[in-house]
Amino acid sequence: MATKAIKSSFRRLAKYPIPLTKREFNAYNNGAKVFVNSLPKSGTFLLRRTLSLLPTFVPRWSYHGLVAGTPQLHQKIQTICRGQYASGHLYWSPKLIELLVTSNIRTLFIIRDLRDVAVSLADYLTNKDTHHRLHPYFKSLKSDDERLMAAIVGVEGKLLKDGRRAESLGEWAMAFAPWLDEPNSVDRKLLYVDERMRVSAAAFLQLIRDRSLSAIANNHSTIPTRLIVGVFQRSSLSG
To answer: Is the pTM of this model over 0.70?
Structure first.
């Protein structure tokens, strides 16, 4: 029992941004502060995995789960430190942008073709997240076609146990849409990738550390796909 308690305490302590190795000290002093934001089911964890492989970040400091209902949300965002990345699904708002700017936090926003999001969401709610409030409803549907349609058009509150309507995919996407028009400034970077996540580590480093996207646009050799003004477009990819 004592050994389990010690291990549990160590795991909790490991999450705190306390540098213990040479790499971690370097990341703590020179790394970027990053918020990974996304439309859900768009590849959040692939993006997190990519960041974890870069030497300027400390994977054990990272965490996921920043959403609108997160307790002390703004305080958690403010305390993101150098070498640390936190991820979540937050709608655009002037207050959030101001917080990110004043805290000197870079934002990576990932969005996926909505058709792929719909398919992934239907599977997730049906087969993977059995604790999600929509799981019983999706599980009760008779066919994958019905599940896919529910993921696209939403679910009326009267059909759900908690009575809360589930938004349509269009409404959901529109709530994130303002991120697409957010200026590519020193403090905020937007990244659009295709679902295959064909982006090199060098591209991420440049995106996080450079003062504009021009460095990436002028260096195609670092990115194994076509880059158009810093935007990865599914329709422009081949192979």
So the answer is: yes
